[in-house]
Amino acid sequence: MVVEVRTYTIKPTPLMPNSPHVLIHYPGLLRSKIENPSFNPADLYDLYASNGWESQWVARYGPTQPSHYHSAAHEAMTVISGEGATLRFGVADTSDDDEEHTHGKGYEDGGVEVQARKGDVFILPAGVAHKTYDPKPDAPSLAFHQCKDENGVVIRDPAKARKFFEGIELGEHFQMMGSYPFENDWDFAVGGQHRGRERQVWAVPKPKRDPVLGESTEGLCGLWKEKPTLSKL
């Protein structure tokens, strides 16, 4: 299988830690799998679990969302339905107004904007800022389905977790599935929360396997260093 790999170096900003590891994008890597008439999100749960990653949610995206990052976990996001959306990486919102921080000037300078399509996989190092907006087809609001029990605890029993993803309806709207290295819980950090403590975020351990490519050096196993060189930032 020929894998197209795109990488982006996302340097720290005044408000966002970002990462010494590159952001990885596999355009359309899983499109044929997802477009198979028999596809179910549980299939991706199985794929990621085989590589030591734990899927925890599926989101149908609304018009926009706050820019944020995860301080204690790397993240894989896979586009499982919809026509597309814009993902902005690397910068914090500087306005509370949705229109201003999405289409205006209410965010930090710099960053990278990528058009996401069905079958794309993004691997985000801990600390990398991101937001998703302008999904197609349009959806009125965010619908966030988390693989948690009635007490709000992540379901880690494989049979129960798989059943959760089997029950997800794909539909026509833009949806992504979020996965993390096993037993890594994510937080929702916004600009400035780790100012002066960026190295704490950068120290999150490198996963042993890429969520899709496993031990292949085409993926994070070859692209991320065990001890990233912080001086390059």
Automatic annotation (TrEMBL):
It holds the Pfam family Cupin_1. Residues 66-164 form the Cupin type-1 domain. Gene3D superfamilies: Jelly Rolls. SUPFAM superfamilies: RmlC-like cupins. PANTHER family: BLR7373 PROTEIN, CUPIN TYPE-2 DOMAIN-CONTAINING PROTEIN. This is Cupin type-1 domain-containing protein. It comes from Massarina eburnea CBS 473.64.
